[in-house]
Each structure stands twice: as structure tokens, then as C-alpha cells.
Write a structure and sequence with these properties.
single chain, alpha+beta, 8-stranded mixed sheet, 28 helices, flat
């Protein structure tokens, strides 16, 4: 116990018990027994719950503390009644203890709190007596509170240091705070940034009344203008020394003048805007002045003007990052921000962004045509710049449309642009401000429309002047006396006269007598006879010849008009174009067209040209004769009528019509097809689009009669097919193709093939007694069956020698299953002979030999080509047949090894083979 006591360093006023994990007492302090309900049970080894029944039911908590899941546990104000009748109060504190040797114990500390509990009971009694006094005071305060609550004005009571002590209901209603939220706070919490309420109490000597208007901030963030009067009142509390004066409180009485101030600001903004619009020369200058005025007058921090492309062009100096080509997009064309406000990211994003119809605040105002208000853009899903605004501290926003004239199509006034404003403060909805801004928007809209009209008029005048001076046509105005009143630059440059010379001459000095008679007549009637009036009919176009200063003749074509005043002619105006070069070109073109038409008519092909609408533009004589189309049909110049006439001449009129229709849908395509007629004729038809520069203006069709050529080609093709068939009956297709490519010698080495020799047993003896023709016919039937088997199994027939048949697998195209294919062929040949015998009542048998290995195959010589094989493999295959047995298929050991797992064999044993010696052979029985 002493050891644990030393380690714990327990204060002298505490007693303790040390427990193990089973709650058994292990150690105790000297005087701990006095806290037990049964002091005698407070001994080592006993369960602690016996002397301290308060611990019954806390076992899980004690285990959590022992295992360090809980730091500690305490029981307060436990009571014991002593033998003398007095009461013992104590607290229990339970913690876990672990020494350096990982020795764990639960430690319960006991603290005697009897004196503290007695003091607390005394204080409770004193408190009850105080409550009686406070109740009386509360009645008095309630009376005063009712008076304060009934006040319509704001009332605030603060200490000399500005700490709020009291406020009435009117103050709570105005500022939106509960009394508990403001009491104890500095009065400056109600003042907006840059304003001060406490300064009101410091303007005049104490106990005097002062008045001032202060900008305040409600709990909602709304800015309020309040007119405050402040009075200092003394309290009954004296200074500590007794010589200093009593402490003073301040009473603030305030009246909400926000609406009055806002009305004044709105009126000021509208007045100043009107003056700016009346004094501004341009839209750009007006906007540059209006944006800061509205912000300063109404207390907003940044302003923007959004306009579509048409409006943006009015502000020629507007900066843009990317070109705007869509008239249905808004872009910020002007903006202004207070110097004290730094929003670089917001400004940069605004300069680059565009708003579509109904997109973002500008787009929504544009789409609705009405003003819109957002109390806090950082909480608005419709605000495209919400994140950047939140980052740079912008909150309140509103926008209003700049309205133009009424549009009948939309039954609403056109929206020329949108103005938007942003504030760093959350702004409560202000209906009257939106109405004022709507009025200002209409004023700006009328100003813009007026300036647009002025700009359009000025541009029209400049364009007309530039048009006259820069026109390539000759423009002139002639007075009633025939003298020139005005000529443009092109007139002077073309004719070469100076202004001084023009002032002295009349139109008759330069007009050539070979000009059109109609033109000469109107000029003589106007300037010589003076008979032209408003009822005179004069030509709308004229053709005249003017003589230049250098005596050249210029052919001119154009129009003229007469100007009258009070019924009398005052001027003749003419716009003329120099057509001298065109006239020469037209003459040259007429010659070229004549030559082209002669060439066109002399060509042997039929030519037809149509435009994009299907109307015939031109055709030659050969076309009409080839098709036999009557002149009255061609006179219609209708391609559809022409087509309808020729369709019944064709074998496939539907294909003819479909081809034309497909080309109508693909005007850029070229085409070729062959037309076959009912009477056996053949026409080649070509067509390609007719282009004028890059534009397709029609299609040209060319028809060429190839009937004779087609007949010759068909005859030649038929002969070629016969030759081809004959060649393929002699040679493999691949070898025949190589011979056609003029290869003179063809020889190839094939490392793996299988060769078959078959011989009809007894056929030689039969030939001695049968008619030769009958014998050949019989042999032809047998070998024809073998040929079909070759084709069926993909094998190559090499040749027949008498009644012997030779075939090979694995060439000329190599194949891995060459032995398998030959084996199946051999079995099928036996079945074919058996079928032949049954159908012809014959008794032929067949002997077959097979060997596998390398060969050389090719064609040699220059006459009577034959595809043949050379090599030892051929010789051994022949020996397998000649040394074989009737109705048996004898294979070499090499072939046997290739097929032993697929076919059934019978070992024949070793036989003596001519030229090869002893060889082991096998008889093929059938497939496994």
C-alpha cells in the first residue's frame, strides 16, 4: 500500500482504494473506511461493492475504464448518516492506473465535500430571499417595458463604452435580431461598413440630445438608413473613489428613413440619367457616364451593359476576345466598377462570356423583357458566374432591359440590351427600384433608337456619296439648258474632260449622231424643243455613243429619269455603263458560237445538253437521227417528253429512267452505261455535269452507236471463251494463266504431294476383241467418272495413258491434306468401277498404287503443251500400281505413315520393286 501511495502521490485530503479487474480491494489508504456504508468490510480481498453499494450496476463502466475505453468516472454528493446524526457528503472519482511494469489497477479516490454542501444550502436560502426582492423589481420593470414596447421608434440603451443593455420590440423588428442576440454586443454591430453609431453619442456634451442619419445593417444583410437622436442619462452607480461623477448610459431613439432615402436616390439617379442622355453626343459616351452615376447614386459596386451583335457595333471601341457571329448571343460591351472594389476574375470572365436567350441573369432579362432581382447570386442556380462571384465577394444583383420600339411579330417591345448591377452586400428585393430602372431602361432605349437613326442617316448619306463617286458606271445630271450639273469620277476618267471643260459644254457637244434614235429624240425634245413634261413617255433605257476628249467613241448603255419642279423639267439624270468592250466580246462570242454549232452538228456522236430543271438547252442533228425523234417533240425542248418518246425503243426502259433520276439527285456525278435496243442496236451513253466556274448549270449527254463494234466484240469473246475452255481442259488454271503471260518454261518444285496411278485390269485383252470406237466410248465413260471425282476432291488430273489414269494431290496449289484426298479418291474410284460394272453388265476390276513425296511439275516445249510430273515419287507410285493386286489399293510406307490414324490398312509385307529393291507396302482397306 505504501508503495502504491508513493507512486500515486495522493493529496492529503483524498483517500483511495486500489482494485483489480474483478473489483477486489488490493490496497487502501489509512482513513478510507469512514466513507464505506459498512466500514468493517473495507479490507483487502473483499469485493468493493459490499462496503460501497453505489457501485452496483456500474460494472460495465468500470471494465471500460480498466481497459482504457473510458478515461474516468465520478459519482457526486454521496451521503452517509453518521452515528451522531450528522451527515457526511463525499465524491468518488474512478480512474485506471498502470505502472512501468504494466501493473494495472482501478483507483477510486474519495473526497470529503461536507463543508461545501453546507455552504451551498446556505446560498440557496439567500437566493430565495433575493428572488422575492427581484419579483418586486420585475413588476416595476414590466411596467417600464410596456411603455418601451409600445414605442413605434427604435430604442437602444447602451453603456458609456457602447455595449447594448436594452432594446425595444421596434428595434428587433427593424433589425431582425432577437433581444438576446444584441444585448451585450457593441452598438457598432448594427452600423454598416464605413458608418458609426457610437460617434452619435460623442458629437455633443453629455446629457444633450444629438441627431444624425446612420447607415445600418439588418441581420438579413439589408442596408437601412436610420435617423438617430442620442441622449446621455446618469445612473445611480458612483465611481469607486466616490469623488468621480456617476456612470452615464446613452439612450438612442431612431426612426427608419430608408424608404425616404431610397426614393431620393432613385429620383437623383433618374434625373442625372436624363441629363446625361440629353447632353451626350454618342451612345458610347452616354453609357460610360450612366453606369457610374447609377452605381454611385444607388450604392451598387459594379455595372455592366449587355448587347447582341447589332448593339455591340454601336460601340466601335468595345474590346472583344473572340468574334461574335451569332446575333442570338449577348456580350458585355461596357462595364464599370468602383475603384475600391477589386474583382479581376469576375471582370475577366465577364469579358469573355456570352449569354444565350434565357441564360444567366442577362439572358433571363433579355428573354422576359422585364427587370429581375437576385438577393444573393451565390445562392442562385440560374447565375452563370455564381462561383466566381462567391470567390470575389459579390452577392446582390439586379438587371433591367433597355427597351426599343414595339414589334408586331412578338407583340412586345424589342429588347436592345440589358444592364446588370452587382453589390458586395446581400440586397433585399426593392420593387420601386426595379420600376425606376425600367423607366430609365426605356429612356436609354429611346436614346439608342434615336442615335441609331442618326447614325443610319449619316451612313446612308456617306454610302450614297461613296456609291456615286466610286461607281464604275457613268453618272450624270443635265440641266434644262443641256449643260452638265454633275458628273461622277468614273464619267470624268472615262471621257477625259476636266471640270472646267465640262462646265462649258452641253450634252450635244459629246453625243455622236450614230447614237440610238430614241435616245437622240428624248434629248432634243427636252433641251431644244422644251416639250418634255410629267406626262411625256420616255424610254427607261437608252443606248448612246459619247465622244471622248481624245476623239474616241464610247458605246454606253443605261437608264435615265427626269426631275420636274412645278411641272417643268429641271434636270435629266442618267446612269450609263461602258459596253464597248462587251459589244466587241459579244461579236467575238457570236462567231465562236457559230463555229461551235457547226462542229457540234458535224460530230458522229449524238449530243444533248439539259439545264438543272430538265429543259433541253441544245442538241445536234446526229442525236435526232440516232433516236428518230420527230421535230415537233424536239421543238418542245422538254427532256421529260423526249425521254417518254424513246423509252419504248429500249430493252430495259426502267433502268434507263432510273439512271437519269439518280443523276438528277447527284448533279456532280459522271456516268457511263450501255443501252440495248429492242431492234438489236447498242448505244454507249456518257454524261458529265456542265459547269460554269464552280457552279453546275446542267448536264451534257453523249450517245455513240456501237452496234457493229458490239457484234464484233461478242464474236471475239465467244471464240476467246472456247479457247479458254480448251486450254483449261489441258492445263491447270494457274498454269494456263502463266502461259497467257508469255512464260516460256514453267517448272516448279513441290516438296509434299501424293501421286495416284490406276489401271483397269483386263482392258488390254478386251481391246483385241472390241470395236475400237466402242472401246474408246467405254473408256471415256469410266475416265469421265474419274474426272468428276478429281473435281469433287480438288485434285489435279495429270494424264491418261491407254487404260491407265494418273492424278496428284497437293499441286499446283499446295494443300496439307493431299494424301487424305488421294486416299478418298482411290476408294471412290473402286466404287465408281463397281457402279459402272453394275450399270453396263461388265466385269472390270481396277488396280491402284499411291506414293507420297516431292516432285517437279511443269510445262515444257513449244507445241502440244501438257502439264506433267517428274521425279522418283512418280516412279514409285507407278510401281505401287504395277506391282499391286486387282481390286486393291497399294500404298507405300511413306503414304501409310501419313494416313495410318485416319484409314484402315492391311500390311502386305515386303515386295521386290523393279528398280527400287525390297519395299514394305500396305493395302488401303477403308476409312476408320
Amino acid at each position: 500500500m505504501k508503495t502504491l501511495f508513493k507512486k500515486l502521490l495522493v493529496p492529503h485530503h483524498l483517500e483511495y482504494l486500489a482494485l483489480d479487474k474483478d473489483f477486489l480491494i488490493q490496497e487502501k489508504s489509512l482513513k478510507v473506511e469512514r466513507f464505506g456504508d459498512f466500514p468493517d468490510e473495507v479490507v483487502a480481498g473483499n469485493d468493493v461493492r459490499i462496503p460501497f453499494p453505489e457501485l452496483v450496476g456500474t460494472e460495465e463502466i468500470l471494465i471500460d475504464i480498466f481497459e482504457r475505453r473510458l478515461p474516468n468516472f465520478e459519482l457526486k454528493a454521496i451521503t452517509r448518516v453518521l452515528e451522531n446524526g450528522s451527515r457526511l457528503y463525499f465524491d468518488m472519482y474512478i480512474v485506471q492506473f498502470t505502472n512501468d511494469e504494466n501493473y494495472q489497477r482501478l483507483i477510486i479516490f474519495f473526497q470529503d465535500v461536507s463543508d461545501r454542501m453546507a455552504l451551498e444550502q446556505t446560498l440557496v436560502q439567500a437566493t430565495n430571499e433575493m428572488d422575492i426582492l427581484l419579483s418586486t423589481l420585475a413588476d416595476t420593470n414590466n411596467y417600464v417595458e410596456k411603455i418601451i414596447t409600445s414605442m413605434a421608434e427604435v430604442l437602444l440603451v447602451t453603456t458609456a463604452s457602447g455595449k447594448i443593455k436594452k432594446l425595444n420590440q421596434a428595434a428587433q423588428d427593424l433589425f431582425g435580431y432577437r433581444e438576446s442576440e444584441l444585448v451585450g454586443q457593441q452598438i457598432e454591430v448594427l452600423a454598416a461598413f464605413g458608418s458609426s453609431l457610437q460617434a452619435v453619442s460623442q458629437d455633443e456634451p453629455q446629457q444633450s440630445q444629438t441627431n444624425a442619419e446612420v447607415i445600418c445593417t439588418a441581420k438579413s444583410g439589408e442596408k437601412l438608413t436610420v435617423s438617430f437622436s442620442c441622449t446621455a442619462i446618469p445612473t445611480d452607480i458612483k465611481g469607486i473613489s466616490g469623488s468621480s461623477p456617476a456612470v452615464q448610459d446613452f439612450v438612442y431613439i431612431g426612426r427608419d428613413v430608408t424608404d425616404r432615402q431610397r426614393a431620393r436616390k432613385r429620383k437623383t439617379a433618374q434625373y442625372v440619367t436624363t441629363r446625361i442622355l440629353s447632353a451626350s453626343e454618342t451612345i458610347k459616351k452616354a453609357i460610360a457616364a450612366i453606369l457610374p452615376v447609377i452605381c454611385d447614386s444607388l450604392g451598387w459596386d459594379t455595372a455592366e451593359l449587355w448587347m447582341p451583335e447589332a448593339g455591340e457595333k454601336l460601340l466601335s471601341e468595345t474590346k472583344r476576345i473572340t468574334a461574335v457571329s451569332d446575333p442570338n448571343l449577348l456580350r458585355c460591351v461596357a462595364s464599370w466598377t468602383k475603384r475600391s472594389v477589386s474583382i479581376p476574375k469576375f471582370a475577366e470572365f465577364t469579358e469573355q462570356m456570352t449569354c444565350a436567350f434565357g441564360e444567366g441573369l442577362p439572358g433571363f432579362v433579355w428573354a422576359s423583357g422585364s427587370s429581375q432581382w437576385i438577393a444573393d447570386v451565390t445562392k442562385s442556380d440560374s447565375c452563370m458566374r455564381r462561383e466566381i462571384a462567391a470567390e470575389e465577394g459579390l452577392h446582390g444583383a439586379f438587371g433591367f432591359p433597355i427597351l426599343g420600339d414595339y414589334e408586331a411579330e412578338t407583340s412586345a417591345r424589342a429588347v436592345l440590351g440589358v444592364m446588370t448591377f452587382f453589390s458586395r452586400e446581400v440586397q433585399c428585393f426593392d420593387e420601386e427600384l426595379l420600376q425606376t430602372m425600367a423607366t430609365i431602361g426605356s429612356q436609354i432605349g429611346q436614346f439608342i433608337k434615336r442615335k441609331q437613326a442618326e447614325i443610319a442617316l449619316r451612313e446612308s448619306e456617306e454610302q450614297l456619296r461613296d456609291l456615286f463617286e466610286n461607281a464604275t458606271d457613268l453618272i450624270q445630271s443635265i440641266g434644262a439648258d443641256g449643260h452638265f450639273l454633275y458628273v461622277n469620277r468614273a464619267w470624268q476618267q472615262t471621257l477625259g474632260y476636266t471640270e472646267a471643260e465640262i462646265a462649258q459644254m452641253t450634252v450635244f457637244d459629246i453625243i455622236h449622231p450614230n447614237s440610238s434614235q430614241e435616245s437622240l429624240d428624248i434629248l432634243y425634245q427636252a433641251f431644244t424643243q422644251k416639250t418634255v413634261n410629267e406626262n411625256t413617255l420616255y424610254p427607261e433605257s437608252i443606248e448612246v455613243i459619247f465622244i471622248t476628249k481624245y476623239h474616241e467613241q464610247i458605246l454606253l448603255e443605261g437608264s435615265l429619269s427626269c426631275k420636274f419642279a412645278d411641272g417643268s423639267l429641271v434636270a435629266i439624270r442618267a446612269i450609263l455603263r461602258d459596253i464597248t468592250a462587251r459589244k466587241m466580246t459579244e461579236d467575238a462570242l457570236a462567231k465562236s458560237v457559230s463555229l461551235l454549232q457547226a462542229t457540234f452538228d458535224s460530230t458522229a456522236d449524238g449530243i444533248l445538253a439539259t439545264d438543272r430543271s430538265g429543259k433541253i438547252v441544245t442538241f445536234n442533228r446526229e442525236f435526232v437521227e440516232m433516236w428518230g425523234i420527230p421535230n415537233e417533240v424536239m421543238a418542245l425542248r422538254d427532256n421529260a417528253a423526249t425521254i417518254a418518246f424513246v423509252l419504248n425503243q429500249l430493252k430495259d426502259p426502267q433502268a434507263f429512267q432510273e439512271r437519269i433520276e439518280s443523276l438528277d439527285e447527284q448533279p456532280e456525278a459522271e456516268s457511263y452505261d450501255l443501252l440495248e435496243f429492242q431492234d438489236g442496236r447498242f448505244f454507249e451513253r456518257y454524261s458529265e455535269p456542265q459547269r460554269l466556274g464552280d457552279k453546275i448549270i446542267g448536264r451534257v449527254w453523249s450517245y455513240h452507236d456501237i452496234t457493229e463494234r458490239k457484234q464484233a466484240e461478242d464474236a471475239l469473246r465467244e471464240e476467246q471463251e472456247k479457247s479458254e475452255k480448251l486450254l483449261l481442259n489441258i492445263l491447270p488454271k494457274a498454269i494456263a494463266e502463266r502461259l497467257k503471260q508469255n512464260e516460256t518454261t514453267i517448272a516448279e518444285y513441290f516438296p509434299e504431294v501424293t501421286v495416284l496411278f490406276a489401271d483397269i485390269v483386263g482392258f488390254t485383252a478386251l481391246s483385241a476383241v472390241m470395236n475400237p470406237i466402242e472401246l474408246v466410248e467405254l473408256l471415256n465413260k469410266i475416265f469421265s467418272g474419274f474426272d468428276l471425282l478429281c473435281e469433287q476432291h480438288g485434285l489435279e488430273k495429270i494424264k491418261t495413258i491407254g487404260d491407265a489414269y494418273m492424278a496428284v494431290g497437293g499441286l499446283p496449289e499446295p494443300r496439307a491434306d493431299h494424301a487424305d484426298a488421294i486416299a478418298q479418291m482411290a476408294l471412290d474410284m473402286q466404287a465408281e468401277i463397281a457402279r459402272f460394272n453394275a450399270s453396263h453388265n461388265k466385269y472390270f476390276s481396277i488396280r491402284i498404287g499411291i506414293h507420297s513425296g516431292p516432285v517437279v511439275a511443269g510445262v515444257i516445249g513449244i507445241k502440244k503443251f501438257i502439264y506433267d510430273l517428274w521425279g522418283d515419287t512418280v516412279n514409285i507410285a507407278s510401281r505401287m500400281e504395277s506391282h499391286g493386286l486387282p481390286w486393291r489399293i497399294q500404298v507405300s510406307e511413306t503414304t501409310y505413315k501419313l494416313l495410318e490414324h485416319k484409314y484402315v490398312f492391311q500390311e502386305r509385307g515386303t515386295i521386290e520393286v523393279k528398280g527400287k529393291g525390297a519395299m514394305k507396302t500396305y493395302l488401303l482397306i477403308g476409312r476408320i
